[in-house]
Amino acid sequence: MIEITEGSGLDVAAIMPVMNDAFDPEFGEAWTAAQCLSTLAMPGGRLLIAKNGGATVGFALSRGVIDEEELLLIGVLKTAHRQGIGQKLITKLNQVCAGLSRSVIFLEVRNGNSAYSFYEYMGFQTVGRRASYYKSIDGSYHDSITMALSL
Ligand SMILES: CC(C)(COP(=O)(O)OP(=O)(O)OC[C@H]1O[C@@H](n2cnc3c(N)ncnc32)[C@H](O)[C@@H]1OP(=O)(O)O)[C@@H](O)C(=O)NCCC(=O)NCCS
Question: How far does the centroid of ligand 1 lie from the alpha carbon of residue 70, in Å?
């Protein structure tokens, strides 16, 4: 059974195997443990963790400022995709944010990332596009799609 809990900097080591598995190295989108820790050290930094019988299988890293939350990263172990874990993470994030009177969750997703369909499924809508926002390891550029979910 999947359980979603709020974590802290103490849990960053446990999410790193998911980070390194979930993100395609071609795009260099995985964060280092130090990057995660520095976000969690900021006011409003938040980590949600998905566990299956004690094993960490997914996470969501976000940051809230006043009434807005930004979803920075979400990842699920490849072997556990399409089992509703990402959905449970976003549902929990929505609940936490609603409890904090956030009015909107924003995110950026690389154009072409299949996560776009996941976000649409979760109710996010496209609100903008930034040209050549991401640079891949091979030097190619990709647009970023800005999405928002009103709470
Ligand atoms: C995006 C991600 C977190 C989704 O997690 P997940 O646990 O597989 O998602 P869910 O099982 O909750 O999916 C819910 C619904 O979203 C949609 N969806 C999820 N992944 C999808 C995909 N790859 N392609 C199309 N639709 C998808 C489907 O409608 C799915 O329902 P279904 O399986 O019944 O058809 C996961 O694919 C991932 O870790 N990707 C790599 C990391 C990444 O790119 N993160 C986003 C940028 S930070």
Answer: 18
Computed over its alpha carbons, how large is the radius of gyration of the chain?
A: 15
**pLDDT score at 98:** 96
Domain that holds residue 20: 2-150
CA of 118 to the centre of ligand 1 (A): 5
Task: Answer whether 0.85 is exceeded by the pTM.
Answer: yes
Which long-range contacts (C-beta less than 8 Å, at least 24 apart) are formed by 39-45?
A: 39/63, 39/72, 40/8, 40/9, 40/12, 41/9, 44/69
Six-digit token pair at 82? 């399409």
Confidence of residue 138 (pLDDT cuts 50, 70, 90): confident
For ligand 1, atom 44, the nearest C-alpha belongs to 115
Count of domains for the chain: 1
